[in-house]
Amino acid sequence: MSRIAERPLLSTRWESRDRHRYLTIPAVSGMAIAAALAVFGLPPLDLHGPLHFLGVMDPACGMTRGVRLVLRGDLVAAFRYNPASPLVVAVMSLAVLRAAYGRLTGRWLTVRLRWSPGLLTALAIAVIALEVNQQLHASLLLARH
Fold first, then answer.
1. Does 109 reside within a domain?
2. What DSSP string runs through 9-69?
3. Quick one: how many helices (H) and strands (E) in the chain?
4. What are phi and psi of 45, to 5 degrees?
5. pTM for the whole structure
6. Number of Cβ atoms within 10 Å of the Cβ of 141
């Protein structure tokens, strides 16, 4: 049996420092921004790229509105704008909880993911499916709300 087959897909361990700081800072910042959007509403700025206005959606289209709606408790509408938005909120929330626990205790949970061809294929299929879904909902995503 090869060494790769012996390693688990996901492994965790506790460490004395934050080895995922590159994820912690954006997650904490993202949740703060998302909370502000949930309370104060969407900004008047339109930060879409030029392809968006030509009707070409990307997998992240609707994510801002979707995340805002998740935090406001409207999962159905959030899923309609972007099916990945509840997952993004869940991952950011776990990262914020991990950061708070690490700061309080000095023990950081380190999570390692073993990238494999099967995992990469599954991720690619998920992104393609999300892209197709978002393109099918272009009229909703182009509307100003």
1. yes
2. SEEEEEESS-TTHHHHHHHHHHHHHHHHHHHH---S-----HHHHTT---TTTTHHHHHHH
3. 8, 2
4. -75, 150
5. 0.85
6. 21
Query: Containing domain of residue 108, as a range?
Result: 15-142
**What amino acid occupies position 36?**
A
* Alpha-carbon span 47 to 93, nearest angstrom: 25
Q: What is the pLDDT of residues 41-87, one digit of tens each?
A: 988 887 788 888 888 899 999 999 999 999 999 999 999 999 999 99
Name residue, tokens 């959606």: 57
Q: How many CA atoms lie within 13 A of 116 on its CB side?
A: 14
How many structural domains are present in the chain? 1
Query: What is the rounded distance in angstroms from the CA atom of residue 56 to the CA atom of residue 13?
Result: 42
Torsional sign, CA 48, 52, 57, 58: negative
Give the amino acid at 99.
Answer: A
Query: Is 132 inside any structural domain?
Result: yes
